[in-house]
Design a protein that fits this description.
FokI Restriction Endonuclease, Chain A, domain 1; about 550 residues; about 55% helix; globular; three-stranded antiparallel β-sheet; 3 domains; alpha/beta; Restriction Endonuclease; 24 helices
C-alpha cells in the first residue's frame, strides 16, 4: 500500500507510455502467476524482462527488486490490471488490456476508476482529509469545461485539485490566470514561475514554517531545494497525466502551445462520461469490494456501450444504413466502428505521404526541426521521430515505415517500442534503419549504443539485403561516435557482421534534406545509397572517429551538388 504524503495530485509515471505496459504485464503473468510478489520474484522478473528484447534500460542490477516494483506496483497495480495480493494474477481488466481487441477502451475505464484515497493509496495522518477525487475524471472535466488545458495550467493549478468539491475554485483560478497572462507586461516564464512558487508556498506552508523541507535522496533541507523538487514533481505528474489521457483517444495535443483538448467527434463520449460517472471515491476502507470494482472490465459504462449511441456514431462516419446495423450486437458494432476508424486513419496517413512526397511540406519540416532545437515541443522525442519519418518519406524512392504510433486521427501518439528501429526504410536492393534520440552526453551512449546496433542486425538478418543505419541526434556524444566507428570495423555475428551505422547531428541531416529540396531532379534510392557508401568509404580512409566525422561533414556538403 502506498502512502499519500504530498498535498498535490500525483499520476503514475512508470511507464511513461501506457502501451509499453502491455508486454510487461503479459510477461509477468505468463511467467509468475500464482507466485508471491516478494523480492525474489521481483528480481527474477527483471532478469526475464532484460532478456525479453522489448524493454531497454531495466535500471541498476543492484536494485532489481526496486526496478520491478517501479514497473508493476505503479500503473499496472494501481489501474487494476494485475492483482499482487495474496499472489500475482491477471485481473479481468488486465486480460482485456493485454489480450483484448480494444486496449484503449479498457484503459479509459480503468483511468476513470483511479481514485485518491483508496485501499491502495492511504493518506498520512499529517495530510488526512486532503484527497477525495478521481483525478483523471476531474482533469478531463477541466479540459471539457475550459475547452483546452495547457501543460502549465495543469502543473500549476490542476495538480492542486485534490478534492473534487474544490473543482470550481481551481477552474476559476485557471480562468483568472489566463486573463492575467493577457495583461501581464513581464516575461511569461517569470510571470508563470512567480505564480507557481507562490502556490507551492501556499500548498506546503505547514512544511515550510515547521522546517520539514527535507526531500528524499538528499540531505539538503533548504527551502530553495524543497521548492525545486516540488516543481520537478509537478512537471513529471503533469506529463504523465497528459500521456495517459492521450492514449484513451479522447484528446488531441497541440505541441506548439502544449495543450490538450477534446477531439470534436469525441465530445459525446466525454459528455456521457462526465454526466454519468459518480465523482465520489468508493470503497475507501474496503479492499475486497474495491478490488471487485477496480478489476471489473465492464465498468464504468461508456458512450459506445449503448447500442443506439454506437449506431448513431457509425451512421455519422460511414455509409452504413440503420437497417444494416440494427441486428448487430454491441461487440459486432464496435468491430465495425474500429474498422471504419482504422480505414479513416490509414487514408489520412496515405494523404499525408502523398503531400510529403510532393515536397510541399519542406518548409514545415525544416521549421519543425528548428522548433525542436530552439524551443522544444511538449513531446520532443515523439516529434523528432515523426518529423524524421516525414523527412525520409520526402526523400522518396522507397517504403518508409515509422514505428511510432498514430492516433485514430493520423496524429503522432507515442514513440516506437523498444524492440524495433524508430524508422525502417525499404528499397529495392538495400534497406536503411533510422534511429533518432534527444539524449545527450554519456546517457546517449548508454541508452542508444547497443539497441541501435541490435536493430540494425535484426533488419539485416530479416531482409537478407545490404543494410545501413542513420543515427540522428541534436548532438552526437563522443562515446557514441567512437562506439559506432568501432562497430563498423569489427565483424560481430550478433549484429550480422560489420555494421554500417552513420551518426549525423541534426543540423547535418537537415542539410541533406535541404540539398534534396534544391536538387535539379527528385532524389532516388541510388542517390541515397551513394551518400551512405561514400561516408563508409571515408571511414576506411580516416585516422580515427573524429577524422571520420569531419569527413562526414564534407560528404553532406557535397551530396547532390552538381
Amino acid at each position: 500500500m502506498a502512502r499519500l504524503e504530498n498535498k498535490a495530485l500525483f499520476f503514475t509515471t512508470s511507464p511513461r507510455t501506457p502501451i509499453k505496459m502491455i508486454p510487461e504485464i503479459k510477461l509477468l503473468c505468463e511467467n509468475f502467476s500464482n507466485t508471491k510478489w516478494d523480492k525474489g520474484t521481483q528480481v527474477s522478473f527483471i532478469d526475464v524482462l532484460k532478456e525479453s528484447g522489448f524493454f531497454e534500460g531495466c535500471g541498476s542490477d543492484k536494485y532489481k527488486d526496486f526496478s520491478a516494483r517501479d514497473r508493476i506496483n505503479r500503473a499496472p497495480k494501481s489501474l487494476g490490471f494485475v492483482d499482487l495480493s495474496p499472489k500475482i494474477n491477471l485481473t479481468p481488466a488486465g486480460k482485456e488490456f493485454v489480450y483484448g481487441k480494444r486496449p484503449q477502451e479498457i484503459f479509459l475505464r480503468q483511468l476513470l476508476k483511479f481514485q485518491l484515497p483508496s485501499p491502495y493509496h492511504k493518506e498520512n495522518i499529517q495530510i488526512e482529509g486532503t484527497f477525495y477525487i478521481k483525478p483523471y475524471l476531474e482533469i478531463l472535466r477541466l479540459v471539457r469545461d475550459l475547452q483546452y488545458l495547457t501543460f502549465d495550467e495543469l502543473k500549476v493549478f490542476g495538480l492542486r485539485l485534490t478534492d473534487f468539491r474544490n473543482y470550481e475554485t481551481i477552474k476559476n483560478n485557471i480562468i483568472k490566470f489566463r486573463n492575467d497572462k493577457k495583461n501581464n507586461n513581464i516575461n511569461y516564464k517569470k510571470f508563470l514561475d512567480d505564480i507557481w512558487t507562490n502556490i507551492i508556498y501556499e500548498t506546503y506552508n505547514n512544511n515550510i514554517y515547521s522546517g520539514d523541507t527535507k526531500t528524499r535522496e538528499t540531505k539538503d533541507n533548504s527551502i530553495k531545494k524543497f521548492i525545486t523538487t516540488k516543481k520537478s514533481n509537478d512537471r513529471d505528474y503533469a506529463d504523465a497525466c497528459f500521456r495517459y489521457l492521450r492514449y484513451t483517444g479522447l484528446v488531441s495535443i497541440s505541441n506548439t502551445n502544449r495543450s490538450i483538448s477534446i477531439y470534436e467527434d469525441k465530445l459525446n463520449d466525454v459528455d456521457f462520461i462526465l454526466s454519468t460517472i459518480n465523482r465520489e471515491p468508493v470503497f475507501i476502507e474496503d479492499e475486497i469490494r474495491y478490488k471487485e470494482y477496480l478489476f471489473d472490465s465492464k465498468i464504468p459504462s461508456l458512450y459506445t456501450d449503448n447500442k443506439p449511441n454506437i449506431i448513431d456514431y457509425i451512421l455519422k462516419i460511414s455509409n452504413y444504413t440503420k437497417l444494416q446495423l440494427s441486428n448487430k450486437d454491441i461487440d459486432e458494432l464496435k468491430d465495425i466502428k474500429d474498422e471504419i476508424v482504422k480505414q479513416r486513419k490509414d487514408n489520412v496517413i496515405k494523404n499525408q505521404i502523398t503531400e510529403i512526397k510532393s515536397y510541399s511540406l519542406y518548409s514545415e519540416i525544416i521549421d519543425t526541426y528548428n522548433e525542436i532545437i530552439v524551443n522544444g515541443y511538449y513531446d520532443n522525442p515523439l516529434m523528432l521521430e515523426y518529423n524524421t519519418w516525414r523527412a525520409m518519406t520526402m526523400l522518396n524512392g522507397g517504403t518508409i515505415k515509422g514505428n511510432f504510433n498514430f492516433d485514430d486521427f493520423g496524429q503522432p501518439l507515442s514513440t516506437a517500442a523498444g524492440n524495433m528501429a524508430d524508422i525502417e526504410c525499404y528499397y529495392d536492393d538495400f534497406n536503411l534503419t533510422v534511429e533518432v534520440t534527444m539524449q545527450q552526453g554519456q546517457r546517449q551512449y548508454e541508452m542508444e549504443g547497443e539497441p541501435v546496433a541490435r536493430h540494425f542486425g535484426q533488419m539485416k538478418k530479416k531482409s537478407g539485403k545490404d543494410t545501413y543505419c542513420l543515427f540522428i541526434a541534436p548532438t552526437i556524444n563522443n562515446a557514441s561516435l567512437a562506439h559506432f566507428y568501432g562497430l563498423n570495423k569489427i565483424g560481430i555475428s550478433y549484429y550480422g557482421g560489420k555494421t554500417k551505422i552513420i551518426p549525423l547531428e541534426l543540423d547535418l541531416f537537415m542539410h541533406l534534406v535541404e540539398n534534396a529540396y534544391n536538387y535539379k531532379d527528385t532524389p532516388n534510392p541510388n542517390n541515397i545509397r551513394e551518400f551512405l557508401d561514400n561516408v563508409l568509404e571515408q571511414e576506411e580512409l580516416s585516422n580515427d572517429e573524429n577524422d571520420w566525422y569531419s569527413r562526414i561533414n564534407i560528404c553532406v556538403e557535397n551530396w547532390l551538388i552538381a
